[in-house]
User: Fold this.
Amino acid sequence: MPTSLDITDVEMRELAAQVSALVVDYFSSVSERRVFPETTASQIRERLPKNLPAVGEPLETLIADCRALFDTSRHNGHPRFFGYVASPSTPVGAFADLIASALNSNVTSWRSAPAATEVERIVVRWLGSMIGYGEDARGLLTSGGSMANLNALLIAHRVKATDETSRRGLWNAGPPMTVYASDQVHLSIPKAADVLGLGRDQVRLLKTDERFRLDVRDLKERLAADAASGLRPFCVVASAGTVNTGAIDPLEEIAAVAAEQSLWFHVDGAYGALAAIDESKRGLFMGIERADSVSLDPHKWLYAPVDVGCLLFRDEAMVRSAFNASEADYIKVNEANADESFAFWDYGVELSRRFRALKIWLMLRYYGTRRIASAISKDNALALELAERINASEDFELLAPVELSICCFRYVPPALRESLRTTDEEERQRVNERLDELNARIMHSVQHGGRAYLSNASLRGRYSLRACITNFRTTSADLLETLAALRACAREEAGAEG
Assistant:
C-alpha cells in the first residue's frame, strides 16, 4: 500500500538521474564559473519562491531552481578560491553524504547506529595515524573545529579542576582558572572559554616570534606570574597551523612546559594538522603525539564536504570522567559488552549526530592516502611558489613566512616602496596606513570581480592580503591569473585615487 511520502520506483529513478546530472554538471563546470556571483541579496530573493506551497511542484521546476542556486553561490570548489580554509568537496565525498542521508543514522551510540559507530571509530584511528598522533587514537567526529575545541576545553577544565565545585560548573567559586595560547590562536578558543563560563579574559594571549609562532619564553613567564598571583593555570593551547599565516607553534617545547606544569596540552590543528601527511612537512609537527587532545577538520583540508571536524584524545577513561553524569532513562545503555555499550555522548556535548564518518571512510578507501597526500603536498608547494613570485615582483611584498599553504602579502606600488625605507617613523606610518586602505579596496574589488577570491589578515598591525590554498584543482596558472586580477584592480584603484 502506498504511503503519503513514498514515491514510485520510476519517480525515484527520475529524481536520482536529474539530481546526479545536476551534480555532475556542477563538478565539471566549477572551474569555469565566476568565483563570486554577480548578484545582490535582493536579486537572489527575487528569484526564490515567496509562498509556502500547499501542493507539490514539478521536479523540473525544483531542479531548475537548484541550478539557479548554483549560479548565485560563492564557489569554494573553484581553483582560484583562496579566501578561507575551506577545501572543495570531492565527488566521492558528495555522493557519500547522499548515502549517509539516505541511511539517516543518528550516531548517538552503538545501540542506535551499530555500523556507523564502528565506521566512525575506525575513521578516528585512521585520522590519528595520518597526523602522527598514534595508531590507536581515540576520539569522535564533530561539526567542526569550533565544537572540537569547545569539547577539548571542557574536558581540560574538568580533568584539571581540583575541587568538585569547579568541576561541576561553578567556574568562579575559587581562584580563576587560566588558559594559554598565542595571539594568533583561532577565535574559537576564547569563544569556548566564554561559553564555558571561564570568560575570555582568562585566555592569556601570548607573544609570537618573527614566524608568528607562540613564544615559549613568554609562556613560561606568564605561567609563573599567574601562579604567583594565585590564579590556576590548567591548559595550554598550541596551534598546528594558524588560520592567519599557517604558522605551527613549537609543539615539542610547549609539550615539555605543559608536562612540567601539569597542564592539559591541547593542539588546535583544525586547519593544519592534516598537512602532517605531507612528508616534507612532517618534521614541523614533532611533539603533536604528546598532546592530551588534538582538533582537526577533514572539511578544511581533506577535501571532505562540510560538516566534519574531529577531536582526538589519548586517555579515553579520563575524557569519559569529564562527562560522567546521570542519564535519562530513555538513553541508558544496558548492554554488558563494552563495545556494544559505547556511547558518543560520553565523550562530547552532542547527542544527535549525523553519520559524518562515511564520507571520510569512503574517500580514504577510494583515493588512498598517497593520492590525498600528493594533493596536500601540491597545495603547500603552490603557496611557496606564490611567495617566490611575490618576492620576485616589484609591486608586491611578502608579510609572513610560508609554512603550510597560506601566503600573506600586500600590494605596494613602486612609487611608495622607497618611502617605506625612510628613517622617518611618522612618514613610514603614513605610508603604511595608505597601503592598508589601498589593499582593503583591492581585496574588495577582487572578491567581487569574479576572477579570484582572497581574504585578509591583520599582521603586526598591517593589512594583509591572504591566499589560502586548500584546493586540489589549483594550478600554477591560477596563481598567475590571481596576481593579474590583483594588478588590474590595483590599477583601477590607483586611477580612482588620482
